[in-house]
Amino acid sequence: MTEYTSDEMMSVAAARALGDGMSCFVGIGLPSTAANLARRGHAPNLTLIYESGCLGAKPTRLPLSIGDGELADTADAVVSVPEVFNYWLQPGRIDVGFLGAAQLDRFGNINTTVIGPDYANPKVRLPGAGGAPEIAASCREVFVVLRQSTRTFVEKVDFVTSFGHGTGKGDRERLGLPGAGPTLVVTDLGLMRPDPETAELTLTEVHPGVDVDQVVAATGWKLKVAGDLVTTPAPTEAELRILRDLKRASA
Question: Which residues form the signal peptide (predicted)?
């Protein structure tokens, strides 16, 4: 069997969640890696949309930021940022929002703003919201990808940058948020999905070589485990080749 890293397993698992023909609002970093892997592999008709106004971007390497010229050079169209948000995102025209996080809680709320309880004097001030709150609110569904530890998977985020499921099922509807919110969380250990009754994230898959106790120990709350827990299929040689080619092109 081909050797691979936990990060490669995470990227491959995240890419597999994107179907051919979908439209995806892509965050920079791990989400962009997964989305570009999907488009180069099983989903050639995946439409990548970046916050800078690039629609249908087809980068030959992983972009450094939403302002990377590679996105504009390879896009089907480049429109203004207000048009991306007002015409494409807010009316619910985008299938999936693909986001990262610094902190994620049991109901899929995302923090990318501050670490620590004091907003004015935080332990760490993070890059901030960008377009993530709108993406989390208005895309038909949201996928989140991040490495798992008790530092990132917390009982309650220090700051709600992007709304997930609030305090449980029904909060999004009460606030009038049109999208379904986070439907999938992909980590370097496994996959989580919201419980249909409570919206609390539940472990549904573990990656090869990972046991449940390892995932539970890396989670900052009492993690629920699905009764029909399965193991994620290992990356194929083709998936790893595409992923590694992308990363070499970006080096």
Answer: none
Residue ranges of the chain with per-residue pLDDT less than 50: none
Provide the 3-class DSSP secondary structure of residue 41: coil
Pairing of strands 110-111, 114-115: unpaired
Of 8, 51, 134, 239, catalytic: 51
For the chain, how many residues are written? 251
The domain over range 6-250 is classified in CATH as 3.40.1080.10: yes
Does the active-site annotation cover 134? no
The closest of 137, 157, 153 to 145, measured between CA atoms, is 153
C-alpha closest to that of 221 among 124, 172, 152: 152
- In angstroms, what is the C-alpha Rg of the chain? 17
Do the beta carbons of residue 143 and residue 186 sit within 8 Å? yes
pLDDT value at residue 185: 98
CA separation for the pair 136, 181 (Å, rounded): 6
The tokens describing 146, both together, are 């991040």
SS3 for 51-114, per residue?
CCCEECCCCCCCCCCCCCHHHHHHCCEECCHHHHHHHHHCCCCCCEEEECCCEECCCCCEECCE
Within 10 Å of residue 151's Cβ, how many Cβ atoms?
12
Residue 84: both structure tokens together: 């991306």
Distance CA 75, CA 70 (A): 8
Q: Where are the domains of the chain?
A: 6-250
